[in-house]
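Task card 7
Instruction: Convert sequence to structure tokens.
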Amino acid sequence: MFRHIVLQALRLRLQRVLIIFAALSVGAAIVTAMAAVYFDINTKMSRELRTFGANFYIGSGTDGLIKEAQLHSLLQQAPQGMINAASPYLYGIARSEQEKIVLMGVWFEDMRTLAPYWQISGQPINVNFDQRNAMIGKTLAQRLELNIGDSITLSKNGGGKHSFKIKAIVESGDATDSMLIVNLEFAQQWLDKPGMASNALLSVKNDQGQVEQFAQQLRQDYPELDIRPIRKVSASEGQILDKIKGLMGLISIVILVLATLCVNTTLIAIVGERAKEFALQKALGAKPSDIIRQIGAEILIIAVLAIIFGLIIGYILAQVLGLMVFKSAIDMRLPVIPITVLLSLLVTLIAVIVPTRRALSVEMANLLKGE
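Output:
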């Protein structure tokens, strides 16, 4: 009999039931999507912010040179997976057949991560040991009238010469546009600075703000070095993440409040329509707990179905957001489902309090008079 009453109550007021279902489904979907993005955003946003390039600087504390061996030691000391890319940089003046030029020696393999903003024409060099090819800044290439495939010859006062084939032209928007970019080992040999570098740049994972802790640790271990995060990038990572997470939380709260109000007003309308039904039940001996159990069962059925539907729609919405913003899918983390279920049930509980009290307070004598 109880099951029959509950199912009939839902069937006879299907339109209002669908309104409650839609409100709870929207709330569950938004919470699912926001929670999925929230728990996955650290990884996605950190990777997205790496497009700014290096976010960690290492140089000499005395405006001199640093040892390449120190950088190797530092990289080995870093926690596994923390360093995305690293390269020492060595700068010096070299003489070409036309004029003196600035030489920049790097580890080519990591430049794609450290300088993703470089606009490269031609084929980038992807191996550190390549001493036959070089990349040249756009401004220097125009000044020397060099194109991709041409050769540039460097010469020393002692009579040594070395020729490079221009494999790519780089446009960076900074001083690199006026430099010849070569293998670090060659630059060290040519500039008579074996095993040395002017500075080093690193791309350090910073999804939990650990870059500053890493810098402090290294300062203690290498007091002779100038070690610091490049704050315009690394500091922005944590700030942007916090702002986005706060925005997602605010959106979720607003949607849940609106869902609560919608469910509440709809239930109040339903209770008003069923006032005589509740009065009759009380007249036949129904206890307040029986009415509470009936209303609770009805709204629980709607809520469970809405939560399941909302989880599915929320997962799809999270994937759409991931593909639009980060160009990758969002991983559904373990806490997402219990958070969605708990918040949706909380919304349902809050929304049903006032309607239930109204159902319990119906006046049998006034409503059933003349029946």
